[in-house]
Each structure stands twice: as C-alpha cells, then as structure tokens.
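tool_call: predict_structure(chain=1)
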Amino acid sequence: MTRMLLRWAAAAAGLLIVAQVVPGVRLDGVTAAVIAAAAFGVINATLGNIIKFFAWPARILTLGLASLVINAVMFWLTTAVVPGFRVDGFVPAFLGALLLSVLTGIAGWMIGDGRDSSKKAS
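tool_result:
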C-alpha cells in the first residue's frame, strides 16, 4: 500500500514537472495533479490496455512506436475527466506522456517493487 501511494505521489510530482517543462500542458495546482495522476493511471490501465491489445498489429509494424501514440491519446483523454488539467493539442500530449513515462519510470525504479534481492531462494 505504501509503494502504491509513493508511486501515485511520484506520478503527481511528474505531472507538475511536465506542466512546467512542456508548453501546452497546464495544471491548476497540486490537487489537480493528484487527481490527474490517479485518473491517468486508471484510464491507462483500463482503456489504454484494451486499445493496446486490439492495436497489436500496428504496434508490431511500427516496432512499438504506436504505443507512444496510444499513451499520448490516453494522456489527452485524461483532460476530459479532470478539471484543472489541460493539454493544448496532440504534440503537447505526446511530449507530456513521454516525459511523464520517463519520470515515473525513474521514480518506480527508485521506489522498487518490494522484493529484497539480497535474500536467497530457498
């Protein structure tokens, strides 16, 4: 539970960074960032995975680049359900989703998955 909250906080912090770095991505404060992080996670885990499943031929043909586009669309779609979170077009959505993925990936690596690698398998 603690790791999940840390990852959620890291995603919200990542969104605040994205809003500062990517022109065309705007957040109206920390509350909007926290809500947007949760909404993006839910949208990406549900609708995003369904779309990625059905788009597997395009993902194979583009060597995975279609996944970046799908992720950008999910990022953009999040603005429809979160007041105070705005993205002004596809390019800011693409760059914002890409940067957020990098930031949350780094944070996830730092937080870890809860497994102790120093223990030996018995």
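agent: The first strand starts at residue 25 and ends at 27. Proceeding to next step.
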